[in-house]
C-alpha cells in the first residue's frame, strides 16, 4: 500500500491524516483553507498519495471527528507508525496518551512521571515533533512558561485552549493563583 493520505470533514474544518502499512504517521488539524492543510501534509509526508483509508485510519478519523465535536474518545486501538520516532519521544507520547480527557499535566509533571528530571528541553522537543495530534494529545501538556513550548507543526488554526474547552477542561491559566494552587492540591489528594 505504501503511504497514503486523505482529507476529511470535521466540525471545525477539513483535517488531514497520513498512514503507512504500519499505522498512522500523522494528523493535520484544519488550516484556514483546505489547500493549506494539504500543503502542510505534503511538506511533512511528500511520498504520501491520496488513497481510500484502511480500517485503522477509519478508526482514527471517526475518533478525531468525534473529539472535535466534544465527545469523549478512546484512541487506544489506533495503531501508530512509530518507526521514525526517537525512543525517548515514544516514551513521552505514551505518557501523554495516558493523560485523561479534560486533564492537563505540566512538562515538569511529565519529567517526574518519566523519571527524567531536568529533561524539559527534550520533552519540549518531543512535543513539537508530535505528528499524531489529538491521538497523542499534546494539548493536554501545559505551557512551560519559558519559551520552550512551541505549537505542534500540525495544530492548524485550532488553539490548545479550544481543544481543552472541547474536553470540558478549565485551563489553569484562566484561574487565579489561589484557584490554581487549590486545583493542584485537590489533584494530588485524589
Write the CATH architecture name of the largest domain. Orthogonal Bundle
Biggest sheet overview: 4 strands, mixed
Q: Supply the number of structural domains.
A: 2
The CATH topology name of the largest domain reads Arc Repressor Mutant, subunit A
Radius of gyration: 17 Å
SS elements, strand count: 4
The CATH C-level name of the largest domain is Mainly Alpha
Low-confidence stretches: 146-151, 173-185
Give the mean pLDDT.
83
Helix content: 25-40%
Structural class: alpha+beta
Which descriptor suits the 3D outline?
globular
Tally of DSSP helical segments: 7
**SSE order:** EEEHEHHHHHH
Strand composition percent: 5-15%
- Full CATH superfamily name of the largest domain: Winged helix-like DNA-binding domain superfamily/Winged helix DNA-binding domain
Question: What is the element layout, followed by pairings?
Answer:
Layout: E1 4-10, E2 13-20, E3 23-28, H1 34-44, E4 49-50, H2 55-67, H3 87-97, H4 107-113, H5 120-128, H6 160-166, H7 177-189
Parallel strand pairs: 1-4
Antiparallel strand pairs: 1-2, 2-3
Helix pairs in contact: 3-5
Protein name: Methylated-DNA--[protein]-cysteine S-methyltransferase
Domain Methylated-DNA-[protein]-cysteine S-methyltransferase DNA binding: 87-169
InterPro entries: MethylDNA_cys_MeTrfase_DNA-bd, MethylDNA_cys_MeTrfase_DNAb, MGMT_N_sf, WH-like_DNA-bd_sf
Amino acid at each position: 500500500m505504501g503511504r497514503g493520505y486523505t482529507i476529511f470533514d470535521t466540525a471545525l474544518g477539513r483535517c488531514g491524516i497520513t498512514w503507512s502499512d504500519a499505522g498512522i504517521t500523522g494528523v493535520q488539524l484544519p488550516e484556514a483553507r483546505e489547500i493549506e492543510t494539504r500543503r502542510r501534509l505534503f511538506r511533512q509526508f511528500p511520498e504520501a498519495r491520496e488513497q481510500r483509508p484502511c480500517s485503522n485510519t477509519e478508526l482514527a478519523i471517526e475518533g478525531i471527528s468525534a473529539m472535535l465535536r466534544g465527545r469523549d474518545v478512546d484512541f487506544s486501538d489506533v495503531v501508530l507508525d512509530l518507526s521514525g520516532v526517537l525512543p525517548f519521544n515514544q516514551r513521552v507520547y505514551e505518557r501523554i496518551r495516558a493523560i485523561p480527557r479534560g486533564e492537563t499535566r505540566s512538562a515538569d509533571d511529565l519529567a517526574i512521571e518519566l523519571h527524567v528530571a531536568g529533561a524539559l528541553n527534550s520533552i519540549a522537543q518531543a512535543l513539537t515533533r508530535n505528528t499524531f495530534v489529538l491521538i497523542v494529545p499534546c494539548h493536554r501538556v501545559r505551557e512551560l512558561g519559558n519559551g520552550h513550548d512551541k505549537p505542534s507543526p500540525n495544530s492548524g488554526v485550532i488553539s490548545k485552549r479550544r481543544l481543552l474547552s472541547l474536553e470540558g477542561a478549565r485551563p489553569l491559566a484562566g484561574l487565579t493563583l489561589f484557584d490554581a494552587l487549590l486545583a493542584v492540591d485537590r489533584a494530588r489528594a485524589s
